[in-house]
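Suppose you are handed a protein chain with no further information: no name, no annotation, nothing but its sequence. What can you learn? This example shows the usual starting point.
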Amino acid sequence: MSKLPEEHKFIDLSDYGRPFAKVIANALKNTTFTPIHVTIAFIIAGIFAIYCIVLEHYWLAAFFLILKSILDAADGELARVKQKPSYTGRYLDSVADILLNALFFIAIGFIASTPIWICIGAFLGLQLQGTLYNYYYVILRNKFDGDTTSRVFENKTPIALPGEKQKHVNILFGMYKVLYGAFDKTIYALDSNAHKGAALPKWFMTSVSTFGLGFQLLLIATLLVLGLKSYILPFFLVYTLMVLVFIAIRKLFYKS
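A reasonable first move is to predict its three-dimensional structure. Written in structure tokens, the prediction is:
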């Protein structure tokens, strides 16, 4: 099942790994491998990427960053082909992402000798960017009856779906709230009426998809390979200003 009906799909610049993710998911469809196993695999890929960044093996780091991005798409894809959506998988995925993102930026800050305030600001900016993208994307998916495992308002612990334990959902949702709560509240405060507005056009969603984690990791990988490690964290810090630009465009032109 696709995340959006065909007529509302847009070019998602962060989702370049989807074709490879589908191949992986289809290969694992009739096996005992679960989406959780794939999530664990992308965590391992992320750890290898961090190790390679610290050792300044940038081509290998780029490979593992891209592999992590592909596997990040593959776990959700496998859940869809097996028709086994899971809140456990959804929150494990998100918790793993934010922790790995923090470690990516710590590693990059270390090799580039970046001031700590820039590291912290860039990380917060990265997360705000991703939160805005997910916010608008989930609104679009819910509006057109797409995949609704993710929700616009993550305020209440969801009821476990068949095949998963409520205890696991409770623990992972609690971790999600601690790690993402401030970012969710910030974006909601900046654009609380987005869900009441007109459907966002494809060009707009494609532009906002530069905030998607897949595109962010691709950009990091590219800058590492090009020897521009010192520019990575300052770029993400400055690019956070585009959060305000996209919100302003949404409010001005798509408010109803």
